[in-house]
C-alpha cells in the first residue's frame, strides 16, 4: 500500500475504467444476468452491490431474489435544505433508516434552504433518488429548473421494471412542463403531453403527481392539468394496461441530453448541444433548485392479497405487473458492495486479509451502476473508513467548481433513458467527481 498519488496512477485508473466499461455483461429481454453478477441495472448492465439495490430490474436479473427487496412507502415532508439526509450511491447499502435520499453526481446546499442539482462541464449532472419506494401516492416537488440548449431538468417516478411517470423540462422551453408516462420502458411517442406553466426558471412551482391504481393526474401549483385513466391504456398486443403500476422511486435530476454522443433525436428534443460556457451557468455549473418534496402514500390497491409484511416491496413473478408485486418483512440491506440479494451477507472486508474470497482485480464485478472500475466503490464503501472517504468526496464536491471528469472516461449513466426520443438510455462518456474520487481512493488502498 503506497499513499502517493501520481499522474501515472490516474492514467492507469482511466484505462482500467475504460476497459472495464467495455466488458460489463449486459442484460435485457431474453438475456438475464449470470449468477456471479446477478443484478441487472436500469442501464441494462450486470453487477453486484448497488446493482442489486434501487433500479435493479427483477425481470432481467438472475432470479427473483437477486434484486434486494425495496423499502416501502413512507409519507413525509422532506425539506431539502441540507445533505444530512443524502448518501452517495457509492456509500448507500440499502438502510433507508440512515438516508431518505441517494445521490449520484454533485448535489450542493443552497443557502440552507434548498438543494441544487448541479452539472459542471463534462459531467453528466446530478441525480437524487428516494430510498423509499411509492406504490401509489401523491408526490409533489417544489423546484425551479435549469435552462439552456441540451439541458434537461426532471422530476419523475421510476420503477425497477421501468414504469415511469414524468415531469420533464427542456432548457429551451421555459413555459412548458412535459408530462409523460411509460409502461415497462416501452416507447410510445403518443404518451407525452406539454403542460403550460409560467417561466420554470424564474418561478418556483410545485409539480404534483397523483398516482392511483386506476388514474394518474399531473398538477402544477395545485391545478390539475392532465389526467390519464388506466382503462384508456389497454394494449391489445401485450394484453396489458400500459399504465405505471409498480413500486417506484422519486427521482430528481439535471442531465445533459444535448451531447454529441447521444442520438440525434435526443439532441433535437433537448434543443441542441449543451454549451459548457453558457451564461446560464453560475459558479461553473448549470443548476436546478429543489426545496421540498412531499409524499403522501396511498393504501395498497383494493384486492391486494400479496401482503406478507409491511417493510419491503418485492416481485413474486418476473412479469413485473401490478399483480406480481408483494410486500413482506424482507431485509432491504446488503453487507457490502460485493453482496447481492442472493447472497446479502458477503463482505470481503470483514474477513481476515488473505483468507477472504475477495474478488480478484482481473475479474472484479461492477458494484455501482454507471461507475465503472471494478468494485472501486465496493472497496471504498465497505472499508471501515468508507464513510470518511465519502465524506471527503461529498465535502469537496459541495460548492466546488468541480474538476469532475478531468481524467475521466467513466461510463456514467443516469436514468430517464426513455425520454421520448431515444430508445437507448443515454450512454455517456464523462466523469463524476464522487465516482472518480472513490475510485482513486480505492487505487491508493491497493
Ligand atoms: C421476501 O420474503 C419472502 C418471504 O416472506 C420470500 O418469499 C421472497 O423471496 C423475499 N424476496 C426478496 C426479494 O427478498
Ligand atoms: C398553452 O399555451 C399555448 C401557447 O401559448 C396556447 O396556444 C395554448 O392554448 C395553451 N394551452 C392551454 C391549455 O392553456
Ligand atoms: C374509464 O374510467 C373512468 C374513470 O374511472 C370512467 O369515467 C370511464 O368511463 C372509463 N372508460 C371506459 C371506456 O371504461
Ligand atoms: C392490477 O391491475 C388490474 C387491471 O389490469 C386490476 O384489475 C387489479 O385489481 C390490479 N391488482 C392490484 C393488486 O393492483
Ligand atoms: C411482519 O412484521 C410484522 C411487524 O413486525 C408482524 O406483525 C408480521 O407478523 C410479520 N409478518 C410475517 C409474515 O412474519
Automatic annotation (TrEMBL):
The GO annotation for biological process reads: carbohydrate metabolic process; fungal-type cell wall organization
Question: Residue spans with biased composition (Low complexity)?
Answer: 349-363, 384-424
Domain of life assignment:
Eukaryota
Q: Per its UniProt record, what Gene3D superfamilies does this chain match? A: 2.60.120.200
Organism per entry: Friedmanniomyces endolithicus
Classification from the root reads:
Eukaryota, Fungi, Dikarya, Ascomycota, Pezizomycotina
Any one Pfam family here would be: Glyco_hydro_16
| Keyword terms, alphabetized | Glycosidase, Hydrolase, Signal
The protein's name: Glycosidase CRH2
Q: Which InterPro entries match?
A: Beta-glucanase-like, Chitin-binding_1_CS, ConA-like_dom_sf, Glycosyl_Hydrlase_16
